[in-house]
Amino acid sequence: MRAFEYRAPTTLSEALKLLAEAKGEVRPLAGGTDLVPQVREGRKRPTMVLDVKRISELRRLEYDPGMGLRLGAAVSCSVIASHPQVRRYFPALAQACALVGSIQIQNRATVGGNICNASPSADTVPPLLCLDARAFIAGGRGQREVALESFFRGPGRTILARDELLVEVVVPPPPKFSAASYMRFIPRSEMDIAVAGVASLVVLDGGRQCQEARIALAAVAPQPSRAPEAEAALQGRPLDAKALEEAGELAAKMAKPITDIRGGAEYRRELVKVLTRRTLEQCLEALKRGPR
Ligand SMILES: Cc1cc2nc3c(=O)[nH]c(=O)nc-3n(C[C@H](O)[C@H](O)[C@H](O)COP(=O)(O)OP(=O)(O)OC[C@H]3O[C@@H](n4cnc5c(N)ncnc54)[C@H](O)[C@@H]3O)c2cc1C
Questions:
Q1: CA 29 to centroid of ligand 1, rounded, Å
Q2: 116 CB less than 6 Å from ligand 1?
Q3: CA of 100 to the centre of ligand 1 (A)
Q4: 172 CA to centre of ligand 1 in angstroms
Q5: What residue numbers bound the domain in which 40 lies?
Q6: Most exposed: 86, 125, 234, 235, by fewest CB within 10 Å?
Q7: Which string of DSSP letters, residue by residue, matches the chain?
Q8: Domain termination residue (choose one: 146, 171, 196)
C-alpha cells in the first residue's frame, strides 16, 4: 500500500479547506469498507485520506414529521437500521441497511459511503430513490442540492467535484396511505452483493386504487435508477395480480443488466420481474395491516 497522509477534521469548514488546498488525490473516508480494500489493492491511490466521521453535520440523524428525515452521510447502517423513527416511517430503508454485508460491516458502513462508492448494486440507494431523497453537497463553491437520482454518473462515478463532500441525504415524510419495500436476490443469506435488487413504494387513494407507484432497480444497469414505465402502468389502477405482473414485466424490460460471474443478463431480468411483483405485494400487505 502506498503511504498517504491521514487527516480527521472535526468541522465541515476545516474539511472543505483541506479538500480545496490539497495537491494530490484526496479520498474521503467514512467506514472504509469500500475504500480500504480499494486502496490495499491499488485500485485507488490517494495521497491524503480525509476521515469525515468526526464532522457533526455528517453524523446527524433527525426526523421531523413536517420536514422528514435528515440523514448525515457518515451515519452507519446499523444506526439507521435500528433507529425507531426510520423503522416506523421508512421501513424499506431500514430493511436495506440491515442487508448490507454483515453485522460487523453494518457497524462500519455508512449511507454516504454506500452512495458515494456508486456501485450499481448499492443496497441503500433503491429505497432512497423511491422515497424521493435529495443529496446535500458542500464544496469550495458553496452548497448545492440535487435529487439523489441525478447523483450517479455510472459505476464508481458521481457528480461530486474533487473538492466536494456529500453532507447529508434528506428524505421527505412518506406520503399518506403509502408503504415501501426493498428486496434483493443474493445466492447466499449474507456477505454478498445483490444480483438484482428492487425497491417499491405504493400510495393508495381513498379507495383501493393506486394513486402513485415508485419502483427503483439495483444491479441491473450502470447505476441505480427508477423504472418510470412500470410506475406509470400502475397509476390509477386497482393493484390486482395482473397489474403487478405487468409492472414486473415493464421493469424487467427497462433493466439493462450485464452478464457477469454472479448472473446472466436474462436471469437478472427475470429477477427484476419477480422482485418487482414481490415488493409490490409486500407494500400491499403492509397497507392492509394499517396504512400510515
Ligand atoms: C464484506 C463486505 C460486504 C459488503 N456487502 C455489501 C452489501 O451487502 N450491500 C452493499 O450495498 N454494499 C456492501 N458492501 C460495500 C460497503 O460496505 C458499502 O458500500 C458501505 O456502505 C460503504 O460505506 P463506508 O462508510 O464503508 O464507505 P467508505 O469505504 O469509507 O467510502 C466509500 C467511497 O465513498 C467515498 N465517500 C465516503 N463518504 C463520503 C462523503 N461524505 N462525501 C464524498 N465521498 C465520500 C469514499 O472516498 C469512497 O470512495 C460490502 C463490503 C464488504 C467489505
A1: 9
A2: yes
A3: 10
A4: 24
A5: 5-51
A6: 235
A7: ----EEE--SSHHHHHHHHHH--S-EEEESS-TTHHHHHHTTS---SEEEE-TT-GGGG-EEEETTTEEEEETT-BHHHHHH-HHHHHH-HHHHHHHTTSS-HHHHHH-BHHHHHHTT-TT-TTHHHHHHTT-EEEEEETTEEEEEEGGGGEEETTEES--TT-EEEEEEEPPPPTTEEEEEEEE-SSSSSS--SEEEEEEEEE-SSSBEEEEEEEEESSSSS-EE-HHHHHHHTTSB--HHHHHHHHHHHHHH-----BTTB-HHHHHHHHHHHHHHHHHHHHHHHHH---
A8: 171
